[in-house]
Amino acid sequence: MSSPRATSPAPPAHPAEPGRAARTSLILAVPSAVLLLLVAVSWSPLISFDREVADWLHRSAVDSPGAVRVNRILTDWLWDPWTMRALIAAACVVLWWRGERLLAVWVAAVSATSSALQQLVKWSVGRERPQWTDPVDSAHFAAFPSGHALQATVTCALLLWLLRLHGVTGRWWRWSVAAAVISVAGVGVTRLYLGVHWPTDVLAGWLMGSCWVMASIAVYHRVLRARRRRRSDGAAPA
């Protein structure tokens, strides 16, 4: 019986990559924090915008039962948070089998903590979901941020990062980016169309998820660099 291949860890990042990821995380943190504050204080212009968009989409959904069925299949199966977590779990199994133990644990931890983060924010803000006399779908717990949007963003961003770490380029990279963009945008559209989220819930999921992944990438590369430095120092002759 053959044993798993002994492979070396992913190639080191470009020296600028940790800094770029950290800067991107900080940039994304600003609109995330502003949006969180505006929703928490129920800023009238934002609430009015949410209501207008939600009302318009709900009228369309009520008149289009076929489109509702398609959106429910997409949101409940293809882009469900548990589907996203299953993809991460599969990626972690592959990484572990390849001998990239730190990376596998890191990816799993980022995914798990992102779920905990969105639940904490939901509980803290306590925003109610849209209420309809003729709902086309239902969802539970608080609305802000959208868990579907956040989990899809985190999952797709992590998977793209792993592909880039392992040198995927060309046509496969372009197809992967396209699939990620369609998934992240699509899950947000389905949640809005089904009337279970406000537009700013979805926007917050996108922003917070992206911010979390960028921060985790920056920290990972710094940890990896520190580990390699310690090994190098330990291997140096006395």
Structural notes for this entry:
By secondary structure, this protein is mostly helical. Helices cover 75% and strands 0% of the residues. The protein has helices at residues 17-40, 44-62, 65-78, 81-97, 101-125, 147-165, 170-193, 199-235. Helix 5 runs antiparallel to helix 8 (199-235). The radius of gyration is 20 Å and the shape is globular. The relative contact order is 0.17.
Q: What is the string of SSEs from the N terminus onward?
A: HHHHHHHH
Main beta sheet: strand number and arrangement? none
Shape: globular
Secondary structure class reads mainly alpha
Helix content: over 70%
What is the CA–CA distance across the termini? Answer: 42 Å
Quaternary class: single chain
Which residue ranges are poorly predicted, with pLDDT under 50 across at least 5 consecutive positions? 1-8
Strand content: under 5%
The whole-number mean of residue pLDDT values reads 91
